[in-house]
Amino acid sequence: MKIVWKLLILVIVALTIGGAVKQAKAEERVSTSGDLIIYGDIISSGGGFSSSTNLTMEGTIGEPVADVESMSDNFYNRAGFQNLEREPVMGFAILENIANLGELSASATATGNSTFKVMTNSDFGYSVRYYGNTLTNQGSDTIDPIGATAVTSQTGIEQFGINLKANTGFGAEPNGGSGAAYGQYAIADQFAFNASDKIAEYTSYTDWTVFTVSYIANIESSTEPGDYQTDITFIATGSY
């Protein structure tokens, strides 16, 4: 029987993709109070919503000048009641970027965690996907990835997988904001690994949500010895 010594180091790279948010209809003034922000307000002589089966329009009356743009090195202004926009804001940060699973064994599951956080003010939220390969040693031997369908951890067979839930003895639920784990990665004590899958999302604006990514690795008694590692890239994309 082989003695297998293994070490996992995950270096997680973060990329945030942004875009323009929906327009907030108002003038130029910002008001704040506690946790609330009014990005602008207007004084007009009328206006309102008009709608048909497929379309809705919001209009104002009493707008002398519209669609006039002016700017300097530090400021940008668009005149007109319907032209105020919030700047697109999306945040994404890796909080823990190394997960060390230690020595792997055919009789016990190795586990580890990393964390990241996401927020956005977009009315349509965000999604997070991941990219990368399964665990690989210096000789290019690999540990079998679980695949797209989540399964429970099982000792004595090769498995590498992740989820974003509180599992028995390790992991945590998403904390803060309104973000949630997604699909096969939202099942406690079950794990999947299928690169490019969506693993987290929210469909509206939300404060920071901290996600804990839980990793598991199992091996066979015949798994080739070596130091196994991989790099995982998480990409958060705003929906605008």
Structural overview:
By secondary structure, the chain is mostly beta strands. It folds into 2 domains: 10-19 and 89-238, Immunoglobulin-like (Sandwich), CATH 2.60.40; 31-78, no CATH class. 0% of the residues lie in helices and 43% in strands. The protein has strands at 10-17, 31-33, 36-38, 46-51, 56-61, 69-71, 76-78, 90-96, 110-120, 126-132, 147-151, 159-163, 166-167, 170-171, 180-181, 191-193, 198-202, 206-218, 230-238. The strands form 7 sheets. It has a 5-stranded mixed sheet with strand order 1-19-10-17-15, with no helix packed on it. The protein has a 4-stranded antiparallel sheet with strand order 8-9-18-12, with no helix packed on it. A hairpin with a 4-residue loop joins strand 6 and strand 7 (76-78). The chain is elongated and about 80 Å long.
How much beta, percentage-wise? 35-45%
Net shape: elongated
* Average pLDDT metric: 80
Count of discrete structural domains:
2
Number of strands: 19
- Helix content, binned percent: under 10%
If you compute it from the alpha carbons, what radius of gyration comes out, rounded to the nearest whole angstrom? Answer: 24 Å
CATH class of the largest domain: Mainly Beta
Q: In whole angstroms, how far apart are the ends?
A: 55 Å
The CATH topology of the largest domain corresponds to Immunoglobulin-like
Low-confidence stretches: 1-29
**Separate helix tally:** 0
**Which CATH architecture of the largest domain is right?**
Sandwich
**Widest sheet, order of strands:** 1-19-10-17-15
